[in-house]
Design a protein that fits this description.
single chain; mainly alpha; about 65% helix
């Protein structure tokens, strides 16, 4: 695996996230298009929570408030009463992007990123891209323009 491609994928996800989340209010982020469907808030909280797993692959701590796990881990369900403010989630996502990029670059440069860890990070980035695409679709559901 071309490990430097992970940095490009991380950067692309970060840029796309910024575009799809633009002009979404916290109230809008809590709306769900139907029963048993994820809200923008849940999706954004989920991908931010999942970054703990990428950091773990780099043997670096990335601590989140325990609420993130109970609200946004796989298998949880969106609930307006069990959510963080979208602005806080977005800020945490962006700060984790910078830190994750630095840690990933450092691990690649030092030659201590195993193929197993690189493959796991690649899978997490694909998972994240999938969810970012969902946010893009939910923008349209909210009557917003597509991401540009």
């Amino acid at each position: 695996m071309a490990k430097h491609a992970l940095l490009s994928a991380l950067d692309l996800n970060s840029q796309m996230f910024k575009l799809v989340i633009k002009d979404i209010s916290n109230g809008e982020s809590l709306q769900s298009p139907g029963n048993n469907m994820n809200s923008i808030n849940w999706i954004c909280g989920h991908i931010t929570y999942m970054r703990t797993k990428m950091f773990r692959q780099l043997n670096k701590p990335f601590e989140l408030d325990k609420a993130y796990e109970s609200y946004y881990a796989s298998g949880t369900h969106p609930s307006p009463s069990k959510s963080e403010d979208l602005e806080d989630i977005v800020e945490l996502y962006h700060s984790s992007s910078k830190e994750l990029s630095e840690e990933l670059q450092s691990s690649i440069s030092a030659g201590n990123l195993s193929e197993e860890a690189a493959s796991a990070i690649n899978n997490y980035l694909i998972h994240e891209a999938y969810h970012i695409g969902q946010v893009g679709l939910l923008r349209r559901y909210l009557g917003k323009e597509g991401a540009r």
